[in-house]
Amino acid sequence: MKNNRLTKVFFIMVSTLFLLVGCSESVKSSIDAALVSTVKEGSLYEYPDKTVGKAFDDFFVDPKWEYFLSTEDEHVVEFNGVAEYYGEDAMITIQFIIDEVTEEFEIYWFGVDDVEESDYVLFDLLDTVYYE
């Protein structure tokens, strides 16, 4: 009888642990989604008439958005999508840093096929994304 009670207590503890882990993952997922939405539903100062999400999702092939916490504890939303670059398909990566308090964001890193590119190339790309 005592062994049966210990088994029940153990089962309840393990079940509670799985529930807590599941809930924390769910909370993390909703925070991640909220930070991605902050960028997608926001706009860049230079292009205030169209949201970042609308512009990027319409222009790039296979657009993907992901949130992560950087090694410097900064909130980063990373965009990846395919676009033509000098006549070839290339993977474009743009990382945005978000201020959680003000919900403002800025472009932190830009690369083509995992190679960092200059601001000049970035601005040329953004003009193409927003105006063509």
Automatic annotation (TrEMBL):
The entry's keywords: Signal
Signal peptide residues on this chain, from the entry's feature table: 1-21
Name of the featured protein: Lipoprotein
